[in-house]
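Aim 2 progress update. The chain analyzed this quarter is reproduced below.
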Amino acid sequence: MSAPLLYLASRSPRRHALLRQLDIEFEPLLLREAIGRPPDVVEEVKDAEPAAHYVERMARTKAQVGWQRMQNRKLAERPVLGADTEVVLDGEVFGKPRDADDALRMVKRLAGRTHQVLSTVALRWHEQTEVEISVSKVTLRRLAAAEIERYVATGEPMDKAGGYAIQGRAAGFITRLEGSYSGVVGLPLAETAALLARIGVSVL
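Predicted structure tokens:
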């Protein structure tokens, strides 16, 4: 196996799979989540913080934390990619559900509505961090309460922004997508490729 071209600062198996679609060698830098110890990145919207600013701040922070981890571990210096994806409805950022009740609340709010999905990717290389953002619109059909309850009971919503997975069972709820499918899943590939091209990494 050849040396990785970059590091991906993410635990997400969805981001790992998406990045592999570009046929790029990478190594995950696993950011610590809130399990027993403080997380590496606190994903919390500040008071009155616009959704686009929050998503960019999170992607930049993840890239920065990954860069610092690379240096602390004395790894070979490579570009570090960070990303963040959030569901936004009426200006409210829907993060990952805290529990099943929170997932029910989110999906009920989204049902029958069109919401935005903001997906930002940040690339740290030396002292520079370049950022690209993908904005998509997703429409869910009207859902009966029993449908939502059955969906939440599958467990699929629990680690997904907005409480649903477009690449999973929730595909049956979505009537319209305007924008980037990969961005809604968690890593906008066109924007990622554009960032990599800026530092001389060719894709495909």
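The radius of gyration is 17 Å. The first helix runs from residue 13 to 21. These observations will guide the mutagenesis experiments scheduled for the next reporting period.
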